[in-house]
Structure formats: C-alpha cells, structure tokens
Amino acid sequence: MGKETVIALVGKPSSGKSTTLNSLTDANAKVGAFPFTTIDPNKATGYLEVDCACARFGKQDLCKPNYGYCRDGKRGVPIMLLDVAGLVPNAHLGRGLGNKFLGDLTEADCLIHIVDASGTTNAEGKATRGYDPLADIEWLQDELFQWILGNLMERWGSVVRRHTATKSTNLETLRQQLGGYSATKHLIGLALDKVPDVGPLQEWDTATIERVVRAFMSVKFPTVLSLNKMDHPDSDKNVSKIILQHPESKCVLTSSITEVFLRKLASQNYIKYDAGTEFVDTTDDLTPEEIAKYGLKPLDEKLRRRIENIRDLVLYRFGSTGVVQLLQAAADTLELVPVYPVRNVNNFTGGSGNQVFRDCVLVKRGTPVLSVARKIMGDVTIAAIEGVGGSRVGEEDTVDRGKNDILSFKIVPGGGN
C-alpha cells in the first residue's frame, strides 16, 4: 500500500484549531469502519467532500461506501488528519514540545494553518485586541525554516566533504540530508527545480543554502491558511493584509465555531443544514410535509434570533462557514483526485450485491494507472485494466478528475503474493 496522505492542522492556542478539527472529523459523518489501520492519539479521520461518481450515472440510491459516506451524490472520502499540538515560539530551539511538534510534522504532506484573523489573541493565544495575525503566519514559516536550516548547517562541513569525495550530484546529497523529513527523491528534485542557478553544492554560501531550504519547504509543506473568526469586525482588514502578503498561499475564510454550532443544531433536529453551503432550514421555512419528513422541532425565540444572526453575519455574507472548503483547498494543493476501483465496469458494483462505488481512494492527478493498482492491491500481477463499459486502459495512462477514475483491475490468477 502507498503512504496515506496526511494533512496536518497547526495553530496557536485559542486560534480555533480544536474546533476546526472537531468539525472536520464530525461524529455525524462517521459511518462505516475506518480505512486506516493505525490511528495515533493525535491522528483523526477527516472527510473530504467530492462529487461522487454515482451522480454521473444516476445511481445515487445504490451508492453505499465501505468507508465515509455518500449523501445524494456528495461523497465524504476519509483522509488522515494530524493534530499537531504544543506549538510555541522558538520550538526549533527545543522549547516545550518543540522538537516533538516539528518531528510530528515530517509526516505531513500539507499544512492547514488555523489563524485567528480577528487579532483578538496574542502570540501565546491569550485574549487581547489589535494583534497582527500576519505575525502568526510568518512565525510558523520561520519556525520550520530555522529547524530545517539548523539541522542542515550543524553538519554542513561534513556534508560538503562527503559530497566532494563521493562525486555525488546535488540531488543525491540533498536526498541523504533531507530524506529524514519523509521527502522522496522526486520532491527534492522539485525543490531544486525552483532554484535552477545554484551551482555545485560545495560552492554554496549561506544565502544559497537558505534559498534551497525555502524551496524545499514550499514543496514539502505547502500551506493552506484558514483565516478563522472571519465574522469578527476586525477580521476584514487583517484578511486583506494577509492575502496581499501571501499571494501564493491558498486562503480560506472560516468560522469553525459557527460550523460546530450548526452541526449540533442539525443533530438535535432543530435545523436541516447542508454543510459547506449557506442553506439552513427551520420549521419557519418548510412545509408541514417537509417538517414531518425531516422530523424538525420548533425553535424558541432565542434560538431563532441566533440562527438569523448566523445567516446574516456568516452564511449569506460568506456563502458558507468555509470549513468544508478547507479540506478541499488542501486536496487541490496536493492535486488529489478520487478514483473508484470497481469489480464490474458495466454496473459499478463490488464483489456482491447491487451497491455501487463501494470504494474510493485519493491519488495525485497524473498518477499512472498501474501505480494506482499498486496502491490499492499491493504487489500483484495485473492481467488487464478496464475503464467504464469495459474499455481498455493502458498501464501508463494517467488519472484525472473524471478521466480514468473508474477502474477495474483483472489479476493474473495466482499472480499475487
């Protein structure tokens, strides 16, 4: 099996990280078992919402995933989230849980940085007014940078001696030095492509090493910024400033506390809520038949006012609470696309029964179909690969959204291990 994609959530205390994590790992969504074998205390299963293949073929009624959920063509695909705790300034000096925190991050393929965009918490997460949240973003990036740079500089002399003695390429030497951050040769190659004019490694000065480390960080830890507490009056100016300063980062405006509150009301049957949208219905908005169908309870005046406020200040103004969009932004950053392995390419069923699209895996856009087979089935000998309607798919053909994303793998009998 290939390595699972891991998305790490980072953020200082009181930024809304725990609330965001709760809304991404929502208990209401937990259906079916979990695909992941080991869940550490700081790991959780999140659900990435995608348009399910069942909707393409009008088979929403027959779609019953083994993992995650599918609600009328919207599918929640499980994805591994890492809750990184103990984030304090100067972590790279080993302060607090510093080194553990940084070590945990090496597993991550992408970071979601929860930033308190309201500026109502200081660097330590204590209540204040007028704090500049840009500092939190700079600080996290700097923390990672100092840590990687420090580890490299500590032994730079011996790295250069060995590099020269073994006549290695820049890529080979960096692979040995940076491989400890769960970085593949491919990733390190991408980083080096971003700094094309660095010359031979033994001639690098400190400024060049720093450029290489920054390039490595950008491919190893691509970061989505969750600009949380977006409905606070001070957030607007901070959000504009952050987007201006970080044009290369994906920014998503969020209100995780609103999301958690709406999901709680939905689970208590006070509202019908489509997560990821602005649509909230109460008994005031629906016909008696619909109220009976959804089993909605009437609201008291206080709750009615709160829901009105949420509609005005969050949902209608921003289009949603942003939380569902957060994982989608991370998946886009990693170019993940859903692929559906099926047994039967004519009716899309699995081994038995008439339920369709039981499985779904997330793979990087452009992955060859054979690599997808390896990820799903391990080391078996593939006799043939079929797409929709039995069309032949070549091993080197690549997957994309809606292209070669429904596959059936025919195995050579006895060809497995």
Care to describe what's here?
By secondary structure, the chain is an alpha/beta fold. The chain has 14 helices and 13 strands. The chain folds into three domains: 1-255 and 322-334, 3-Layer(aba) Sandwich (Rossmann fold); 256-321, no CATH class; 336-411, Beta-grasp domain (Ubiquitin-like (UB roll), Roll), CATH 3.10.20. Strands 1, 2, 3, 4, 5, 6 and 7 form a seven-stranded mixed beta sheet that branches. Strands 11-10-13-12 form a four-stranded mixed beta sheet. The chain has a two-stranded antiparallel sheet with strand order 8-9. Helix 1 packs across helix 10 (256-267) and helix 4 crosses helix 8. The longest helix is centred in the middle third of the chain and has 21 residues, at 134-154. It is flat, with a radius of gyration of 24 Å. The mean pLDDT is 90.
Percent range of helical residues: 25-40%
How many strand elements?
Answer: 13
The stretches of 5 or more residues where confidence is low (pLDDT under 50) are none
Residue share in β-strands? 15-25%
The DSSP helix count reads 14
CATH architecture type of the largest domain: 3-Layer(aba) Sandwich
Overall structural domain count? 3
List keywords for this structure.
36% helix, seven-stranded mixed sheet, flat, four-stranded mixed sheet, GTP-bd, nucleotide-binding, Rossmann fold, alpha/beta, 14 helices, 417 residues, 3 domains, Ubiquitin-like (UB roll)
Offer a concise description of the structure.
Helices cover 36% and strands 17% of the residues.
